[in-house]
Design goal:
Length: 221
């Protein structure tokens, strides 16, 4: 799996975040090299990011990220028709945004290492109900060829356990051509049976064609 570095601006759009969403403690689960935690800190919000990759430390991660960004840029250039260009404008601009976010992430990881925890779903080192909002970008559903229904169910139950508010997951389609994830409906039935309501919401962001919706999961009131 590649490490990617989406920016604070991309997160705000992907997760339809309003100012109220950033008032409590936010967990970025599968945070990778995103600059969301850094940007949110700059905006006065408290974000903790969790990712197994953080065990490598900033020097190794910076090297891995350079290679992954190069591969991602080549993939986007070779498959330009699979993407909607409204957000970035051009492939060059896309590369610049992701590269700047990666630089910001590495600097923040060095400056505030306590905001980045090495942890892997479906097991998070947080107490029950200890965060207000969980965001999960381009891990669940994106990699549904690697992680099955049972893993997705366990991962969402775990994110819901640590969260007293909502869990938002984006996108809800496969990587590549953006096919629908065949077990999504079944997964939502299982969540409902476990006492968790879920809702699909359209968001003001679409880069991978067809990836313009998030899944929001919350406890029944
Ligand atoms: C495609 S990247 C997305 C990074 C970031 N959220 C973004 O949108 O730019 C997926 C990330 O999920 C992380 N990951 C892989 N397995 C994981 C797991 N079991 N639990 C949490 N994160 C995981 C990877 O290390 C990688 O950084």
């Amino acid at each position: 799996m590649i490490i990617t570095s989406r920016s604070f601006g991309e997160y705000r759009a992907m997760f339809a975040l309003g100012d109220g969403d950033l008032r409590g403690v936010v967990l970025d689960c599968g945070g990778g090299a995103s600059s969301f935690a850094a940007g949110a800190a700059g905006a006065g919000a408290r974000v903790v990011a969790a990712d197994p990759g953080y065990a490598h430390g900033p020097d190794v991660l910076a090297g891995l990220l350079r290679g992954d960004q190069e591969r991602a840029r080549a993939m986007v250039r070779a498959n330009a028709d699979r993407f909607v260009w409204d957000w970035y404008g051009t492939a060059e601009r896309y590369g610049e945004v992701r590269s700047a976010a990666g630089v910001e992430f590495i600097a923040d990881l060095r400056r505030r290492p306590g905001s980045y925890l090495a942890a892997a779903l479906p097991c998070l080192p947080f107490a029950d109900g200890s965060v207000d909002l969980v965001l999960c970008s381009h891990l669940l559903f994106t990699w549904a060829d690697r992680f099955d229904l049972a893993w997705h169910r366990a991962a969402i139950l775990e994110m819901s356990r640590v969260c007293r508010g909502e869990v938002r997951i984006f996108p809800i389609v496969h990587r590549g051509a953006g096919e629908r994830v065949m077990f999504l409906d079944r997964l939502r039935v299982d969540l409902e049976a476990a006492g968790l309501s879920s809702e699909i919401r359209r968001v003001p962001y679409e880069f991978q064609r067809g990836a313009d919706r998030l899944l929001a999961v919350g406890a029944h009131r």
